[in-house]
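@channel sequence for tomorrow's demo:
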Amino acid sequence: QVQLVESGGGLVQAGDSLRLSCAASGLTFENYAMGWFRQAPGKEREFVATISTRGRTTIYADSVKGRFTISRDNAKNAMYLQMNSLKPEDTAVYYCAANSRFVVTSDSAYDYWGQGTQVTVSS
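structure tokens (generated this afternoon):
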């Protein structure tokens, strides 16, 4: 079955960096657009970034633009999120997701989800 496994979360201070990874299995990875979403306590899940099947197209939420970079390695069935200049408001559980259709920002369009990895940014 399809599995998406996130890793790389942790507790950091404001201004630090983290790199999240998403390992995919059970699907033809290169055929799926991928995305990162996050959910903070008491808030709805929100879009962070998405990348097209070959990595040529990326879209970012305004709140992370210029600080986060999404990338993928189809040979390794992996996707990444480089997070720089982290802020306390970036604290959330981060989820990776796969979408067999288009590069989209709506979570309802995504077919598969990981379990999430916690990112906590202290001030």
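heads up for whoever presents: The chain has a mean pLDDT of 97.
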